[in-house]
Amino acid sequence: MTTQLKLMPPPPVPDAADPLIALDREGWAVLPGLIDAAACDRLAALYGAPAGFRSHIHMARHGFGRGEYRYFAYPLPPLVEALRGMLYARLTPIANRWHERMGMTARFPADHAEFLARCHDAGQRRPTPLLLQYGAGDYNCLHQDLYGEHVFPLQVAVLLSAPEEDFTGGEFVLTEQRPRMQSRAAVVPLAKGDAVVFAVNARPVRGSRGDYRVTMRHGVSEIRSGRRHTLGVIFHDAA
Ligand SMILES: O=C(O)CCC(=O)C(=O)O
Ligand SMILES: [Fe+2]
């Protein structure tokens, strides 16, 4: 019996075949090694470049936490532009399915340029991809990246620094607020170059009487030492 069991093939691991399967179950999923270490370093180095950004935010001044970020200006750096279009195309079927399940009327076109035209027509014209930089003692309060009426329900953050080497602490945290229940938190395990895909504001959860909406927020726990950079990819533009 034991030998027979040993000879049996291992059970299939669906998440390994498609990491995005976890999105429906958890409201977030990790895309391991989305970009390589050299590309991470090149992107993180842009933070110190004088040009290419439309604004610079000191989080403490706005009560958002402690740390800073810069929104890219258009045209985006080619890698950011390519990632944004590629990820959007991959996430659109899930976004449309989620909207249907949550009883939301908006549907998303297959082409990101078409969705951006919709944002721009509604006055959401400013690019939202951003680079974040944190040092020791910095953190990012739980929040949602909503910038107007048009919201693509999923977004992506890419960790550009190596945990335990470049920084300690600074974990990516998600919370979900379920109706009439206490909130639940998740800490997302990320290595340098990994991306987390997560719900911007709400996700559908299957209950005994159909789907219901769960509200999600994300943030970053305090960086204990070192420096941490992230690339944030949001698919709607900002008013
Ligand atoms: O630094 C992080 O990991 C989170 C960044 C963030 O809030 C975002 O990309 O929207
Ligand atoms: Fe965010």
Automatic annotation (TrEMBL):
Pfam families: Oxygenase-NA (PF09859). The keyword Repeat does not apply. Residues 125-238 form the Fe2OG dioxygenase domain. The keyword Oxidoreductase applies. Keywords: Iron, Metal-binding, Oxidoreductase. InterPro entries: DUF2086, Oxoglu/Fe-dep_dioxygenase_dom. It comes from the Bacteria. Gene3D superfamilies: q2cbj1_9rhob like domain. One of its GO terms (molecular function) is oxidoreductase activity. Belongs to the iron/ascorbate-dependent oxidoreductase family. This is Fe2OG dioxygenase domain-containing protein. It comes from Sphingopyxis italica.
